[in-house]
Every structure is written in C-alpha cells, then in structure tokens.
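Fold this: Spore cortex biosynthesis protein YabQ
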Amino acid sequence: MQDLGLQVYAFFSLVLAGSAAGVLFDLLRVLRRRLGPRSAWEEVLDLLFWGGLTLVLGTALLSGSHGNLRSYIPVALALGAWLYFALASPTASRLLNRAVTIIDRAAGWAVIAGRTAFRPLAAALRLIGTAAAFLLRPAVALGVPVLRRLRGAAQRLARPGRGTPGRLAGRLRAWLFPPGDGGGEEGPE
C-alpha cells in the first residue's frame, strides 16, 4: 500500500487534471462559438480536444498515481471539473475569448502585412516574365527553323552504312531528339 502522502498528492494532481479538462472544454467552446456552427474545423477541433484531454489525463494518471487505478480517480477528476466550472469557468471563458480575439486580429494583420510585402515582389516577377517573353519571342521564331534544318541534317548523317561518323551522329541525334518527339524513328508508344 502506498503512503498516505503519495495518495493525497495523486488525488490533488487528478483534481488539477479535472480542472485542466475544464479549461480545454472552455477553449473548445470559445473556438466553436468563434467559427460558427457546422464549421469545417469542427472535426479538427474535436480531435484536438480529445487528443489534449488524453494527454492531460494520461500525464496526471502516470505522474500522480504511477499508473495505478484507484477508486478515487473518477471522484478526483469530477471534483476538479466541478470546481473549475463552478468557480473559474466564466472568467476563464472571457479570458480565452479575448485571447482568441487578439490572436485572430494579429493573424489578420499578419496576412495583410504579408500581402503588402509580397505585392511588389509579385509585380516585379510579372514584369520580368513579360520582358523575358517579349525578348525571347524573336529568338524562338528564329530558332525553330534552324532546329528543323539541323534535325534534317542529323537524319541524313545518321543513315546506316556511313561508318563511325554515322553512328556518332546517330547517337547525337538520339540524344538530342529522343524517340517520340517527331525527330525520326519513332519508339514504341
């Protein structure tokens, strides 16, 4: 049997765990009220609530009673939750609501600042892209006929029976114009 001091410590740690469960529930209520009914975040909030509750209760059970299940555990958890909801819940709900409001406003300002900061960068990138397209258009217009002529010359050089230069040119042609791009012998498709 454990010492009475350890059991009192376990009892009060479980009372605190019940109060922490109440805080988590109030946070869930504030967030649900803020996001509105039938929000897409509802399932995510539920999952986070139950995950947090599992961590709080598991930590309290392991640290307080060293994993031993005692008959006073449900009583201590219920007492902690009742004390929290009776004494601290209205004040904690208001504080949590203010904290969520402050975080929401700060996130909104951060989004506005980010958009403002990246707007000139996006405009500069659009300008560079437009200039590159304008400058490369004549090069592409000149390069396409030259590449077509080079492809024809490479095909003539790569005909069988030309010896080593023909094989080298064939390998070069296969490297430059892989099968399937219209560069000569078609591969299986």
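Residues 129-176 form one domain. The chain has two domains: 4-114, 129-176.
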